[in-house]
Amino acid sequence: MKKLIQKKYKQTIIYVLDALKILKDRMKHVFSYKKIHIKKFILFLWITVLIIVIDYMTKKWVIHTFDLYQNKTICSFLNLFYIHNNGMAFGLLSQQKFCPEFLIFFTGTMVTIKIVQIFYSFFIKETYKNYMFYCFIIGGAIGNLIDRIKYGCVIDFIDIHIYTIHLPIFNIADISIMFGALASILYSIFLK
Known about the structure:
It is a single chain. The chain is of the alpha+beta class. It has one domain. Helices cover 67% and strands 12% of the residues. β1 (71-75) and β2 (78-85) form a beta hairpin. α1 (2-65) crosses α3 and α2 (100-125) runs antiparallel to α3. The longest helix is centred in the first third of the chain and has 64 residues, at 2-65. This protein specifically catalyzes the removal of signal peptides from prolipoproteins. The active site is at 156, 174. Its EC number is 3.4.23.36. It is found in: Cell membrane.
């Protein structure tokens, strides 16, 4: 009887050790897979923060270097022209009288929704392919949101033109938003 109990005890220990080994191997696979997602998410955050910092620093430089509506020619197609934009990206709807609180609320809501969607995609759904482009959109939106909260308008200063035809004046955040949107659309059309 004693030998039978020892034999069953040994078999139980062997089964438990085998189960632990299998569990360890599976957990190692799961954690290495999650590390990939975490690394990509950290890259996403770094790019977003880098865009916000570059945008903020260029706007600070413009504010301290130029007077409002001051124009400096850089080359035949590029001027730095410091203006306050009360509208949306690239001066869209700048002639309309928007309540700044509405634009702050709208932008903040859109950024929050997109961050939740991206967080869900990275960690729950585990799909993140074209979401890396959204770091440019979110970084630019947050950059402009900071201006709206701090100044009540967005600081724009890049003026690209061909002779007398000028594009709307924009900033680094607007470039980032446009790049992210175009890259995401092109990815969806051609690579999905």
